[in-house]
Amino acid sequence: MKGQKNLKQVYIPTIEEMQSWYEEDIRKKVLKSSGYENSKKIEEQGSFFKTFRKFEEMDDKIPFDSKKNNVYYEKYKKYVEEETVNKGKEIQEIENLIEYEKFFLRWERRVSSESNNYGHYGSNSATRYRVDCIKKLEKKLEQILEDSPEAWEFYYKRQLINDIETQHQQRLITVPYVVKAKQKVIDSLNLGVPVYIVGHLGSGKTQLATEAALDFTIQNKIQSELEDKMEDWFSANPNATERDTIKKFRELNEERKLYYKNILTNGSKEEIESLQPLFISGSHNLTYEDMFVEKTLSLQRSFSQGSFVDYLNMIIEDFYEWMDEHKARLEQMTDEEQLQLKIQIWKSFSDLLVASNSAFGTEIKKIEREVLIAVREGRPVIVDELNTIAMQNLIALNDILQRHAGSTAYITGVGPVLIKPGFGFIGTGNLSTQMVNYEGTNELNPAFKSRFLTIEYNYVPQRIIGSLEDQEFPEKNELFRIIIARLADKNGNIHIPDSKRTLEELFRFSQLCRVTQNVFMGKWKDNEIQKDSGIDELELRESVLSIRNILHVLDNWNQGEEKDLSKALWDGFISSITYPDDQNYILSQAVRFGFFPISEGWKIETKGIGEATTTYDEIRTRPYHYVRPAIETLSYLDVVHLIFGKGTPRKILPKELIEVFEDDIDDLTRIDAKKYQELDQRLSHLEHSKYLLEYLEDNGGER
199 and 430 in contact (C-beta within 8 Å)? Predict the structure, then answer.
């Protein structure tokens, strides 16, 4: 029979097999395109560069598998691709609804705040309605991600690409720790409450302040512009339904976001500066005038405004007026006497004009500084290292810090000034401990500090126990996520030598970084560091693998092109440590995490407290020689699974796919018992086999 012949030839794979083939297909596609993608910058190069440009020879590591021509797999692949697109649209629709509800919530709160003279906006029936809608929509989004593997893949692939773009823009990657901290700052500024961000060296608190202030400004501008645009649109379309309104909101909202994104990337200097917060670098020498109004002495040496022709006409008019008044007296003089007198009078008029329009000496001028400009123009201002400024100068900020937008604050030397909406105040400060004390910093006066919402912002979370394969919740390793985003190309793919070993090394590197951060913060008692190290008292005084230093190491490593990670760790960070005890401790911890192995020519000996720094020659037993392993490729989907987990598993075959599969066996209406037993054995390992078997039975198959 025709059906029996087809059934014998067609292999029926498991769901897991088809998903595995799908992931291999993605890797194969990446391999074919890697290294050959032309960017705009490459196209701009001359003929010499293009003619003699060459690429590393790369073997295709994925062998051809005839099973991938399997009819069931082809239909599975088509279904997954189409379903991913469909779920992506569904996710974007929900996200647009969430943004619409948030837009309306902010509008409601602004109206409420203005009704209360810019006090706290309070809660009312309208705001509570929007809050409840947002919660329901967020829950709906969570449910889609839990139910659909395709929705999960779309959502987290987009998150990965966003991480990479953010990294290229030199902004903080939006891991949950960063997102929560940034939102806390923005929410506080929206309430009119100043923010004080404290943290340790290299934690990124100044960057957080700058980005939060920028996002706060752009959000306010978009909100204001959307309110006007939606009102104008609805005035022109009074019969529009709410569905039409939400569709129009999405169009306008995307247009506004793209507009400001383009300004930040391609805008003029003036356009970019109008969005950026005003900035003051704090120091002990910073005075009240440096923040508000600076008085300067100006030496004036030129005529006041006006052209020379105007001045000459003034002299002529005055001169003739004088002659008319003294005409009778002049007529009594001789021509010579008249000439001499006229010359003297003209010279006198000239001297008087010069004297009246020239400044001889100095003039006091007042120049508005950042805090006053921010108050008048409604812009955020950041005072970096706030706790280095003398307390008697900070007290001048008191009245501004306790006032809200729309109210008037008194500024010494200026008088009452209206605080324009959009104003926000952010201070940053280094956080000292018993072990680490930043020179020149002061403890803020409790009464002054109470005016702020204080946020402690430190290093992003990272588990320091277990290997990469042991991580039950990989999404919680946020530092590892930042490292991986640094290595990915613009499409989310990664090309590294010996991927399994390298990824494990990178994970151990992230753990080492977090250990140094914990010790630097004095939080080593919160974990297993002390127990594993055998040291009673731990401290790092000057050195820590902060994000800044982590990026130095990764750039030095350069994806294993010329050196391994141990050598890059030495060259990019440890060799530059000048405090011997810090260097000794970090070296010992690096060995504990598997770096600098003896088998590869390294020999790290623990030194006592107070001994000299370690040199490169001390820790090498033979000349360094590096042979780069073969480069392997991880697709964007591999990377997504690596940093966000395996995602939503496919427990059963979707109904839509079952119907497609059934169409292919419509002609299998009769099969004998032997063939059926063979089919049953082949299908017994399938989670979806029962659907196919039931279909065959319902269509008259013999047992």
Answer: yes
> In 3-state terms, what secondary structure has residue 279?
strand
User: Is there a contact between 486 and 228 (Cβ–Cβ < 8 Å)?
Assistant: no
By CB atoms closer than 10 A (0-12, 13-18, 19+), residue 32 is exposed
Are the CB atoms for 480 and 642 separated by under 8 Å? no
Q: Which residue, among 650, 645, 656, has the nearest Cα to 686 in the 3D structure?
A: 650
Q: Is the dihedral of CA 126, 130, 135, 137 positive or negative?
A: positive
Taking only the tens place, the pLDDT of each residue in 552-601 is 999 999 999 999 999 999 999 999 999 999 999 999 999 999 999 999 99
Q: What CA–CA distance (Å, rounded) separates 482 from 488?
A: 10
- Tokens representing 679? 């089919």
472: left (phi over 0), alpha (psi -120 to 50) or beta: alpha
* Nearest one of 184, 182, 186 to 204, comparing CA atoms: 182
What token pair was written down for 492? 């989310």
Neighbour tally for 76: CB within 10 Å? 24
Q: How many CA atoms lie within 13 A of 171 on its CB side?
A: 20
Q: Where are the beta strands (DSSP E) in 320-423?
A: 362-368, 380-384, 408-411, 415-418
Q: Is the pLDDT of residue 389 over 80?
A: yes
Task: Tell me the C-alpha distance between 596 and 574, whole Å.
Answer: 12
Give the pairing type, strands 453-456 and 195-199. parallel
How far apart CA 494 and CA 695 sit, in angstroms, is: 44
Q: Nearest to residue 223, comparing CAs of 104, 335, 331, 69?
A: 104
Cα distance between residue 227 and residue 246, in whole Å? 13
Q: Torsion angle of alpha carbons 586, 384, 282, 452, nearest 10°?
A: -110
Band (pLDDT 50/70/90 cuts) for residue 667 is very low
What would you report as the CA-atom Rg of the chain, rounded to the nearest whole angstrom? 36
Q: Which amino acid is at 203?
A: S
Can you tell me whether residue 38 is helix, strand or coil? coil
Distance of alpha carbon 200 from alpha carbon 549, whole angstroms: 14
